[in-house]
Design goal:
Aspartate Aminotransferase, domain 1; 39% helix; 14 strands; Aspartate Aminotransferase, domain 2; 2 domains; alpha/beta; 7-stranded mixed β-sheet; 3-stranded antiparallel β-sheet; globular; 399 residues
Length: 399
């Protein structure tokens, strides 16, 4: 059933009214597609007494995602952070890596944690992906790799980035945490660059409780990543290189396989939610709902709006109002990696104009099976009400 519509400012929860939603809506609440199928697979693993170390379910998830992503090699790992680290290690990356500042902090942490120096670059205004022109400005002899991030399920400018990587003789790694199932030139992401890393975290379009995938079409690189993932063991008692434990377990594989089987359902569901958001929020001054590129496939997992110049209400004020209504939207990716404490760079030396703007204006809205179309409409109308009455809301919040 749809929730009641707010009619006056006093009905807003932040001003003393009852929250619009009785059950809290979250960005990234896990989707559980088929509970019985997950439990059945977990029971089979327990019956086998094989819970880790390349069990049958891990081998199955690797084979099935390799087919889904149209790649030769898919390596299941504990999480995408570890996948990025294994990729950089396998490619012998040293020195500096260029990454966009406008990304989840985990992209930066993964590289910095293994001793690489980060060179932050800006993103494109239209799709919020890494800006190849800004990348080229920052390439020096010290740069050992480029890390492109496929943000909001939309592909980077892969061909341009690949041309830069080839020209300067450096690896190209793609952080595809947002982009499972998405395409570039009608080909699934996963086989571009030297290597791609996907997240199967609980909040992603396809989840394995916690987990990640590393994909590549390079046979030798895949073999090396597999060795690094398991302490460097070549066989039972022969260790050939310094490795670490980054293996996925059977329970996570059970969840990932089952959710892959339900991917078409969740993708269609999220697409319908985004149509509601777009239709309800279009035509409002200062507000831009970020559109997926309909020429390509997208998982539609990320519903993002920009509350920018010309809006009667600031993004952070709208955020406060929505949280009070039990809608936990997210201000991704505030304040930008280059402004986060571990990497904080002075404005004089590290000003990235598009990242600065997006960090101050974007809101991500809830998607997934927690939402139905009625809830999406109710949320959209609540946001519309706040935008129309933004000036008065701002005045009352500042009083």
């Amino acid at each position: 059933m749809p929730e009641n519509k707010k009619k006056t400012l006093n009905e807003l929860a932040i001003f003393g009214g009852a929250p619009l939603f009785k059950t809290t809506l979250h960005v990234g609440r896990p989707n559980i597609m088929d509970r019985d199928a997950v439990i059945s697979r977990i029971n089979q693993a327990m019956d086998r007494h094989w819970l880790s170390n390349d069990g049958p379910l891990v081998k199955e998830i690797e084979d099935r995602f390799a087919d889904f992503l149209q790649v030769k090699h898919c390596i299941a790992v504990t999480n995408a952070t570890m996948g990025l680290q294994l990729s950089a290690k396998a490619l012998n990356v040293t020195g500096e890596v260029i990454i966009p500042s406008f990304t989840f902090i985990g992209t930066a942490h993964a590289m910095a944690w293994i001793g690489l120096k980060l060179v932050f670059c800006d993103v494109l205004s239209g799709n919020h992906n890494i800006d190849p022109a800004d990348v080229e400005k920052r390439i020096t002899e010290s740069v050992g790799a480029i890390v492109g991030v496929h943000l909001w399920g939309r592909a980077c400018e892969i061909d341009t980035l690949q041309e830069l990587a080839d020209r300067y003789g450096i690896p190209l790694i793609f952080d595809a945490a947002h982009a499972i199932g998405s395409t570039y030139k009608n080909k699934r992401l996963g086989g571009f660059g030297n290597v791609s890393v996907f997240s199967l975290h609980a909040t992603k379009a396809i989840n394995s409780l916690e987990g990640g995938l590393v994909t590549t079409n390079d046979d030798a690189l895949a073999d090396k990543i597999r060795l690094l993932r398991s302490y460097g063991f070549e066989d039972e008692d022969q260790v050939s290189m310094l490795g670490i434990n980054a293996k996925m377990n059977e329970f996570s594989a059970a969840m990932g396989i089952t959710n892959l089987e339900g991917y078409d359902r969740i993708r269609s569901h999220n697409r319908h939610l985004q149509v509601v958001y777009r239709d309800e929020l279009s035509g409002i001054e200062g507000v831009n709902f970020i559109q997926p590129d309909e020429r390509e496939e997208n998982n539609y997992h990320y519903a993002v709006m920009e509350v920018g110049q010309g809006s009667c209400i600031r993004r952070d004020s709208l955020y406060r109002v929505l949280v009070a209504e039990n809608v936990y939207v997210r201000r991704y990716f505030r304040p930008g990696c280059h402004r986060s404490l571990p990497y904080k760079i002075s404005k004089k030396n590290g000003y990235l104009p598009i990242t600065e703007r997006l960090s101050a204006t974007l809101l991500q809205l809830p998607t997934g099976l927690q939402m139905d179309l009625d809830k999406a409409r109710a949320l959209s109308r609540l946001i519309h009400f706040c935008l129309v009455n933004g000036a008065e809301i701002e005045s009352r919040l500042c009083a």
